[in-house]
Amino acid sequence: MIFLPIYLSMAVICGGLAVPFGTFVPNLFMGAAFGRAYGVTLNDWLPSGKVSSPGTFALVGAASVLGGYTRMTMTVVVMIAEASGDISSTLPIMLGVQVARFTASVFAECYDEKMMEVSERSRAERSGAGGS
C-alpha cells in the first residue's frame, strides 16, 4: 500500500527532469500496485470471501494503465497475456484496457503523440531560426 504513492511521486518528479526517462515500466508498476491494492481490498471487504487472486487484479491493473497511457490496446493485451502465460485472464485484461483507453481518450490527449508534436515544433523552430 505504501509503494504506490511513493513510486507515483518519484515517477512524477523524474518525469519532469531533463534526463532520458522511460514511462513504460513506471506505468506497469503503478498499474500493478493499484490493481493489487484494489484486489486485496475487494477480497477483504466482500463477505463472500475470495473474489480472485490479487495477482490477477495486479495484472489487469498493469495492462489497463499501460493501455490507457499508450492507447495501444491490442499490443498491450497480447504482450501482457504472453508475459503472464495465463490465457484465462485475457478477457479481463481486454475489458480493463478498453475501459482505460476510452476513459483516457475522453479526458486527455495521448502523451506520446503530444510529445512528438512538441518535438517537431521545436525542431522546426530551430531549423527556421538557424536558416535566417
What do you see in this structure?
With 132 residues, the chain is mostly helical. It has one domain (3-131). It is 78% helix and 0% strand. It has helices spanning 3-15, 24-45, 54-70, 73-84, 90-107, 111-131. The longest helix has 22 residues, at 24-45. The radius of gyration is 18 Å and the shape is elongated. The mean pLDDT is 84.
Mean pLDDT: 84
| N/C terminus separation | 56 Å
Q: Which residues form runs of ≥5 with pLDDT under 50?
A: none
Helical percentage:
over 70%
Number of domains: 1
Strand content: under 5%
Number of strands: 0
SS element count, helices: 6
Main sheet makeup: none
How big is the Rg?
Answer: 18 Å
Q: Which structural class best describes the helix and strand composition?
A: mainly alpha
What is the H/E string? Answer: HHHHHH
Give a topology summary.
Elements: H1 3-15, H2 24-45, H3 54-70, H4 73-84, H5 90-107, H6 111-131
Helix pairs in contact: 1-2, 2-3, 3-4, 3-5, 4-5
